[in-house]
Amino acid sequence: MTELEKLEAGLEYSFWDKEVNARKQHAMVETAKLNAIDPQDEDAIAAQLKRLFGSCGDDPWTGPGFNCDYGLNIHVGDRFLANYNVTILDIAPVHIGNDCMIGPGTCIITVNHPLSPKGRRNHLGIAKSITIGNDVWIGANCTILPGVTIGNNVVVAAGAVVTHDVPDNCVVGGVPAKIIKEIANDVEE
Fold first, then answer.
1. How many other C-beta atoms lie within 10 A of the C-beta of residue 39?
2. Which tens digits make up the pLDDT trace of 167-188?
3. Of residues 26, 75, 113, 164, which has the active-site annotation?
């Protein structure tokens, strides 16, 4: 298998591989274009996000300083908003529902590395998808780790590190994030 085939199969892969690295280089070029757009030109931002992301609903917006690893593995619903300096390391797919807001400085990370120094010296990575439901607000400076699923109508408190799945209709916070309280969903259909 090539390193890219290993990555896509959910196996350990070399992140220094030229084919794997080409994805990141493409994303760096496209995010540089995105970040060069006047922040008030919402139509141009939306058009660039639709070129960068794998799929994109209506009315997406990102603030300056947005970065990603690939772009095409990011799938967002309608009215997606990512504030300043948001990073999505989308080595594996990231699915984000409708009406989601991501606070400044947040990192959504699908890639992990070995605990062994030998594995890290061999530049190995392994990726796991992240899914975020509808009506989710992720506060400032949060970290969402590989393999996590966040349900619908969730608030992730500022500074939280989400290491495990989060059910619907709750507020989570802390390091690691834990349920703080349940909240009502006043838009359920």
1. 13
2. 999 999 999 999 999 999 998 6
3. 113
